[in-house]
């Protein structure tokens, strides 16, 4: 493996836990490593770290930690990653930015950036003046200038949804970047038709536990629905800044349990779940959590945010709602009380995941991308 793929990212390996972090970008990189191995190239991941380190993580995979602990500026941190890349790379190598926002420099090597979905669509939960809203339009316009500038620094942009591509078209007069959409994916297990031995219904939230992922929206809706039904098992899977908030809210409720999991266990934790909820309030691509729930034969409820609108047809393979407590409560009420609808949505969700969002489909697309980049 003389040719090498360099991946620049903010966080992949957790130094403290000595394991891979949980998150969509980490899942993406983890699976790209398999593609790189298939193509026949080795990989070096260059990431933020609390101290400099080099870790030979697996055969053909090296993780290089760059100490940015005393640096507050994100742009300076990203430039440090790029500087380390220059110390190692040759012109024959390929540079991959794990997100387009890291692509501050134009490389002499062939370069690719991954765009994981629009991240600047999170609405404030507080009322504001008309003037404040207008100021926000100007602020986001300036951000758009930066974002379109970054992607000029790479040879190809891989977007995970059409939401971003359509946004980009609204921002430019003439296309300056080559953008290809490769939606995210899921492994497809055998169809698991859950055999019910009682009347209980299991509801799962499996995300990183932070507000923009919908933790508080989910918590309020679950609190409402638990008042009405006593046959529910609610599982909150993950970790993050809202973990203590959620545990405090449901401390005395025996119907709610908390678990932690590794990214490789995502399908396993969905195995006995009836309803999976992905209540993101902003910053979402073609959600791994949503696709994994669909592949696990769950009835899914998601919000009409980002790339999830490329996946769900409301009423056919899931229920799509506005990010509101009232709408989520109503959707949960429907699925908890109507087993036939749950099974109809779950069956269609599985079929759509298998036909349009399988890992094999995604892998074939990326094999072509890397073979072209390395001239293989």
From TrEMBL:
Residues 192-351 form the Glycosyl transferase family domain. SUPFAM superfamilies: UDP-Glycosyltransferase/glycogen phosphorylase. It comes from Bacteroides oleiciplenus YIT 12058. InterPro entries: Glyco_trans_1. One of its GO terms (molecular function) is glycosyltransferase activity. This is Glycosyl transferase family 1 domain-containing protein. Pfam families: Glycos_transf_1 (PF00534). Gene3D superfamilies: Glycogen Phosphorylase B. PANTHER family: GLYCOSYLTRANSFERASE.
């Amino acid at each position: 493996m003389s040719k090498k793929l360099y991946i620049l990212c903010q966080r992949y390996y957790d130094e403290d836990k000595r394991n891979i972090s949980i998150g969509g970008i980490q899942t993406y990189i983890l699976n790209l490593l398999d593609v790189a191995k298939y193509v026949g190239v080795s990989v070096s991941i260059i990431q933020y770290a609390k101290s400099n380190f080099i870790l030979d993580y697996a055969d053909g995979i090296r993780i290089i930690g760059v100490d940015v602990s005393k640096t507050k500026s994100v742009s300076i941190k990203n430039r440090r990653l790029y500087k380390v890349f220059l110390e190692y790379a040759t012109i024959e190598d390929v540079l991959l930015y794990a997100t387009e926002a890291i692509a501050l420099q134009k490389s002499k090597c062939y370069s690719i950036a991954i765009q994981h979905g629009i991240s600047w669509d999170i609405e404030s939960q507080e009322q504001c003046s008309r003037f404040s809203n207008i100021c926000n339009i100007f602020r986001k316009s300036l951000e758009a200038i930066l974002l379109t500038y970054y992607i000029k620094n790479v040879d190809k942009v891989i977007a995970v949804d059409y939401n971003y591509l359509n946004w980009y078209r609204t921002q430019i007069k003439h296309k300056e970047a080559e953008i290809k959409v490769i939606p995210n994916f899921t492994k497809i297990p055998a169809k698991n038709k859950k055999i019910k031995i009682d009347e209980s219904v299991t509801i799962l939230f499996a995300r990183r536990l932070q507000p923009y992922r919908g933790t508080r929206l989910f918590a309020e809706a679950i609190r409402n629905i638990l008042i009405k039904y006593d046959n529910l098992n609610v599982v909150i899977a993950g970790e993050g800044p809202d973990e203590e908030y959620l545990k405090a809210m449901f401390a005395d409720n025996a119907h709610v349990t908390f678990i932690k999991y590794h990214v490789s266990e995502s399908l396993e934790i969905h195995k006995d779940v009836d309803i999976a909820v992905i209540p993101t309030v902003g910053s979402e691509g073609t959600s791994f959590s949503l696709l994994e729930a669909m592949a696990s034969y769950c009835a899914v409820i998601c919000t009409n945010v980002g790339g999830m609108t490329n996946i769900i047809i409301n009423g056919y393979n899931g229920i799509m709602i506005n990010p509101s407590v009232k709408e989520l409560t109503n959707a949960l009420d429907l699925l908890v009380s109507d087993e036939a609808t749950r099974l109809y949505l779950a069956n269609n969700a599985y079929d759509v995941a298998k036909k349009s969002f399988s890992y094999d489909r995604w892998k074939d697309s990326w094999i072509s991308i890397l073979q072209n980049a390395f001239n293989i």
